[in-house]
Amino acid sequence: MSDRNAQQLTRNAMRALLAHYRITPGDTAPEDVVTEWLRELRGRSVGECHAALSSLPLNRVQHVTAGEVARLITLARSRPAATGTPSSARPPRPRDRAADKAAGARGIGTVYELMGWTGHEKHALARTVPCPFCRASAGVPCSPLTRNRLRQREIRDRETRMHPSRLRAAEERKRANSTSSGAAASGTTQGASA
Ligand SMILES: [Zn+2]
Prior knowledge:
Helices cover about 50% and strands about 0% of the residues. The chain is mostly helical. This is DNA-binding phage zinc finger domain-containing protein.
């Protein structure tokens, strides 16, 4: 059992969390905001708040409400395996990483769905292909790069956090796949005589 993760939420801890994740502008959160967040998150630990807040993309975390964080923690408690709670105290081996990444992507999808957020479908589609701009591999989110070695400029889409050319590439590939599978279905005996 980790005592650190069970650390109680105090006013100081709440202030630190709000500042760390830049949820309130400036270095010090207004007292009424601290009070409201403490009330919403009563019974949750500092570790749980950290885990919930760090699971959010940057453009979400700055607009998140205390109620949403509380729901994320409730969700995490109901799925202990997905939050990485060590049931068998075994550190993940390197070959588990692909599986971890896939589980992480599914988890984020679930969070988006439960919170009624949009954009994840496009994000998931974009990550099926490598990024032609920042060269992120398939399955890996885009880097924050804004100018590449070819001196092209591109800014990641706020909603999907992917470079727009990557989403276009994924959409094109999806279209190509659907037309080619249609063609394959109609050309039934193609290549049978070879
Ligand atoms: Zn990219």
